[in-house]
Design goal:
The structure is a homodimer of 133-residue chains.
Chain A lengths: L1 H7 L6 H12 L5 E2 H10 L6 H14 L2 E4 L7 E4 L6 E5 L5 E4 L2 H13 L2 E14 L2
Parallel strand pairs in A: 4-6
Antiparallel strand pairs in A: 1-3, 2-3, 4-5
Helix pairs in contact in A: 3-4
Chain A binds a DNA duplex (25 and 25 nucleotides) through α2 and α4.
Chain lengths: 133, 133
DNA sequence: CTCAGTGCAAACTATTTGCAGATTT
DNA sequence: AAATCTGCAAATAGTTTGCACTGAG
C-alpha cells in the first residue's frame, strides 16, 4: 500500500506523494518524466508544482522506491522499483520503452568488471532500436 | 591527419577545430567534457570560447569523428571515434574510464532486440564499478 | 571577396533551492 | 504546536543560439 511505502521511507504521507506514487503504480505506462507527471497532475487540478515533483521523485529514489534513468533526450525518466532488475529497449520511432532481463548479459558484466579488477556496483544498458521492416 | 578529417567533414580547417582534434588525438586521456577541453585550451591562451567547443564537438559528432556519451553526472563526455566500438567501465572511486569490448554481450543485444521484433540501431552500456578490496 | 566560423552575451532546458505559508503528526 | 512539506520564484548547471566581427578559401 502506498502509505506504508511512504512511511517506511521516513516521509510524511502527503497529497503530492500519494498522487505521484499512485500514478506510478496504476498506469499502464511505467516510465514518466517529471514533466509528464506534472501535466497529468495539472489536468487533475491537483495544484502540485513541478519543483515538488522533482523533490518527491528524488526522495523516492533515495528511499529505493523509484529508479531514475538517463535516456537520451535530456529529461530523466522515473519508474517504480519493483525489485526485479531489468534493462530497456527504446523504440526510436515511437519512444516506447520495453523492458527486458537477460541473464547472459548480467553475468557477463560481472565477469568483465572482475577481469579488469573491479566489483560491479551498477550498470546501465539501453538498446536503441527500430521496428523490423 | 587532422586537416584531412576536418575537410572530409565539409568543415573549414580552423584553429579551434585543429586544436580540439589535436587534444583528442594525442592525449593519454581519451574522454573529455567540453569544459575540460575549455580549461586545457584556456591554459594555452588559445582564446577559444566554450560555445565554440560545444559547436565544434557537435559538428564532429555529426561528421562521425567523435562520439558523445552521457555518463552520470550531468556533463556529456566526448571521445574520438576510432572505429572499433567499445563500452565503458566507470571507476566510481576515481572517475577513471576503462574501455572494453565483449562479443558475447554484443551478440546477445542483437538477439534480444530481434526477439522483441526490433533491429538494434545503437546501444549504451556503462558499468559502474569499484576497485576490488 | 565571400561565406563559414568565432567570441561573447543572452537564451534555453532540466533540475535544484530559499523562503514564507500550508500540512501532517 | 512542532516539524516537515509545498508552491512559487529565483538560482544553477549544461548546452545552444543570435549577432557583429574575424578568418579561411
Amino acid at each position: 500500500m502506498d502509505k506504508i511505502d511512504i512511511k517506511e521511507a521516513g516521509l510524511k504521507v502527503t497529497q503530492p506523494r500519494l498522487k505521484i506514487l499512485h500514478i506510478l503504480e496504476t498506469s499502464s505506462q511505467k516510465h514518466f518524466s517529471a514533466e509528464e507527471l506534472f501535466h497529468i497532475l495539472s489536468k487533475e487540478s491537483a495544484g502540485i508544482g513541478l519543483a515538488t515533483i522533482y523533490r518527491v521523485l528524488t526522495q523516492f529514489e533515495t528511499a529505493g522506491l523509484v529508479i531514475r534513468h538517463n535516456f537520451e533526450g535530456g529529461q530523466a525518466v522515473f519508474e517504480l522499483d519493483q525489485g526485479e532488475h531489468h534493462d530497456h529497449i527504446v523504440d526510436m520511432k515511437t519512444g516506447t520503452i520495453i523492458e527486458f532481463h537477460d541473464e547472459i548479459i548480467e553475468k557477463r558484466q560481472i565477469e568483465i568488471a572482475r577481469e579488469h579488477g573491479y566489483r560491479l556496483v551498477d550498470h546501465s544498458l539501453i538498446l536503441y532500436a527500430e521496428p523490423e521492416e
